Fold these 2 entries.
Entry 1:
Amino acid sequence: MPRLGRRFLSIAALALLLATLGFPQPRSMAAKPAANPEAGDPSLLDLAGYKEMLAGYHGKGVLVTFWATWCEPCRNEYPMIISLAKEYGPQGLAVVGISLDEDADMNLVRHFLAQNHPGFPNFRQKPGIDTDAFYQGVNPEWRGAMPETVFYARDGHLARSFVGEKPKEAFVDAIRLVLVSASARLIPKDNSIAGH
């Protein structure tokens, strides 16, 4: 292994050790996207951190995709979401991914993110939290089915949500909705069968 790679691994191991020893990370730091969204493991989020993260995108349309490596529809639509992030990012769309994988699946999460190069920040649901309260806090209609995609208008209000894999056209319609105005109040969610 090249010297620079070993040095990086040593620094990463030291940082992990310090984190493991209980040196707390300030809450405001934990919820903000890293400068390089693909560096390191996804930061952990609880509901308060999720809301704080969203507040950081006020003034932008926001697409949040909840995914997991064990969710085949999530894996199928993720490349499309990456493409949409590149296409609509210059128009004011922020995209965020949140993994619902467990600690034991972190190698799969790392591999998935390294393989896909999302170009947008990804977080992970904090283990041990009340998941039902988390789901309800994100979207009162969400019961944990995946993939779950939520769209927020520029003023931060929930504008649309999808449960299950959807075609690109549905995403484009929702993205246009959240980009066109400062406020796009809640529109009935799409209850159609996943994928169609």
Entry 2:
Amino acid sequence: MELSPRDLALRVAQILSDKKASDVEVLEIGDLTVLADYFVICTGMSSTQVRSLAEEVEFKLSEQGIEPHHIEGHRSTTWILLDYSSVVVHVFYKESRDFYRLEHMWADAKRLVLPEAPREAPSVSPTENP
């Protein structure tokens, strides 16, 4: 089953969120450039997490038969780019994301609202009768 570019971008965002990426954003850039339809941008809080986030996206999408066309920065731990043609995934280390500021470069892009992860129901303590 092939995913639409929008569904693929949202799937990637969900994978990254599930893996505890910070500041996950999906930018719809198709009307602004021919580079891709969507950018998915996130932050890893350590070099290990940056690598782990990128590997998780690759693994989960590969399970669905979706392979990246190109990968940049796998040896780097400050910015890894996964190119799925219509969706480009940017996994940044915090300082690199702050430096490159892709969201500001693509300020005219529409931002997709990501579905919220289900929250655990608050625990209810039984009331005591005096």
